[in-house]
Amino acid sequence: MASNLLQIDSLTKSFGDHRLFENISFGIFEGDKIGLIAKNGAGKTTLLNMIAGKEPIDGGKIVFRNEIRFAYLEQSPPYDPDKTVIESCFNTDNDIARVISRYEEVMSSGKHEEMDEVISQMDLLKAWDYELRIKQILSTLKITKLDQKMGELSGGQIKRVALANVLISEPDLVILDEPTNHLDLDMVEWLEDYLSRSGISLLMVTHDRYFLDRVCTQIIEIDDFQIYSYKGNYSYYLEKREERIMNQNAETDRARNLFRKELDWMRRQPQARATKAKARIDDFYKLEEKAKKRKRDAQLRLDGKGSYIGNKIFEAQHVDKRFDEIVITKDFNYIFARYEKMGIVGNNGTGKSTFVKMLLGDIAPDSGVFDVGETVNFGYYSQDGLQFNEESKVIDVVQEIAEVIDLGNGNKLTASQFLQHFLFAPEKQHDYIYKLSGGEKRRLYLCTVLIKNPNFLVLDEPTNDLDIVTLNMLEEYLTSFKGCLIVVSHDRYFMDKVVDHLMVFEGNGVINEFPGNYTQYREWKAIEDRRALEEQKSVAAERQSEKENTKVAEKTKLSFKERKEFELLEKEIEALESEKSVITQALSSGTLSSEELIDKSNRIGEVLSLIDEKTMRWLELSELA
Asked: Smallest Cα–Cα separation from 380: which of 356, 401, 402, 358?
């Protein structure tokens, strides 16, 4: 039976009069892979910070199993901008980095009495090859400049360094807050595969629904200040959540019917408000509260009308753009059609955002032009987001743009009604900006883009930090949007729902079109990759055969001196391997003195270097033997 790694009992958290959750309880067991879902502002990140000890609790308790090791990937990981990538990996707060730091301190200080314990911990945590492993995983995550300062990295690169630090520590429990934000699609799919195959226990917050579906074995939802748990993946959660809402609504309907009868009794019985009816009156008020709790999901429908747009949208004519050696576009030509909905995909650094900014006129191409039609009215949602005045109120931000929003066909909404469509309740509309969560600010920014009624939406990473409820609403809006659309996104589910074809940025100025959604593209690409791999294998096999034939024809015999060297190397390598085995056993025996430990530690490094050197020479000579 799987053991309990973490238990949360009766946890409560509020900020002033804003309640996040109350008396919530759940546990995490070995092998659990749990996705945490809630609306923006419901306390997802706060809960993770409380578990990690970065946020105080108001009530309840969080209990870890003794000696459990856990790692936490924050949404915005903090790093010293002056430290290099590799220094940041060694200065991170995990058990391996701490024991390495202690080992180096003991070695330099000469505290030999502590050496036994430190070496034992190094063995236990497999810390001897930590640097090699961190370099391997950084390379997998496409971080190759290890001497680069952290302050010079992009947000996505910093997130990948933090992710490497989390994974390399091999913890019992991993806590991830939006791990897929700022990762390109290849990295998202790599991480998805890594976590689904690994036996690691996991608690994470993510808006990536394919990621939730393929990795998680349990979904926990925070809703109405309470916890609801579903033993299954995201698809199972959707099905069971709908059943829960239907059952809750049925109970509420029954409560309403009873409430109407009790309300009639309350009105007819003013004299009954004596002691004999006090219990019934108390029950009446409880019933009134229950009768008001009908669950409304997905809010009101907001159609994406868009203003009139003509036949000419934009034409890209011979557009070239580069930054030093990085080529963004090379003689790029394209005619964008009316009502086209295009997704832009590609690895980070291939120029997706630069392309969008050239279209909008924010960045000039080196040569060529974007010829934009006169009726085009862009609505641009940027990765960087709108910088709000933190002292402004939510309603003021929208009213500064428009008091009344014309949706067309005689339909109009006030600023307050428009905000309600985007999940800002009337009382929330009068909150100051600084009180909003990161996701709520992104949702408000989305409002400021859509409220201007554009006919051409350009959305650059719109799904980052938005909750799933908002994403569903935005997908519905874009599906019915009567205008043009360009979406740059790493969210595969979102792309599948809203775009009908792709522009794929391959890098080095290569841009290809694909007539389908993202899933269709990946299926096609997998087939093409397999075909290319088979061709490469076939060509490699032919070349190897030719090489071997050439070797047979041109083979040179070893000289007498080289043959003697070859035979001697075999004996030397065998002796060094034996010495390595003896030293390794001695280091692990716990019987050596401090001086012997230091000598043995130094010698094993020399032995490993000699084995590598002599093996390479042996291989060279074996080619001629």
From this structure: 356
pLDDT tens per residue across span 60-102: 999 998 878 888 998 888 888 888 887 777 766 667 767 776 7
Each domain of the chain, given as residue ranges in start order, spans: 4-239, 252-291, 314-516, 560-622
Cα atoms in the Cβ-side hemisphere of radius 13 Å centred on 570: 7
Identify the residue whose tokens are 């909404």: 413
Question: By C-alpha distance, which of 249, 259, 251 is closest to 287?
Answer: 259
Residue with tokens 């309907």, as numbered in its chain? 253
Considering the domain delimited by 314-516, tell me its CATH architecture: 3-Layer(aba) Sandwich (3.40)
* CA dist., res. 313 & res. 340, Å (int): 10
Give residue-wise pLDDT tens across range 375-385: 999 999 987 76
Q: In what order do the strands lie in the sheet with 59-64?
A: 18-29, 4-15, 59-64
Element (H, E) at 221: strand 218-223
Handedness of CA 386, 392, 394, 399 (dihedral sign): negative
Which residue is it, tokens 């950084």?
138
CATH superfamily, domain at 4-239: P-loop containing nucleotide triphosphate hydrolases (3.40.50.300)
User: Residue 388 CA to chain centroid, in angstroms?
Assistant: 25
CB-neighbour burial class of residue 542 (10 A; exposed 0-12, middle 13-18, buried 19+)? exposed
- In contact, 377 and 310? CB cutoff 8 Å: no
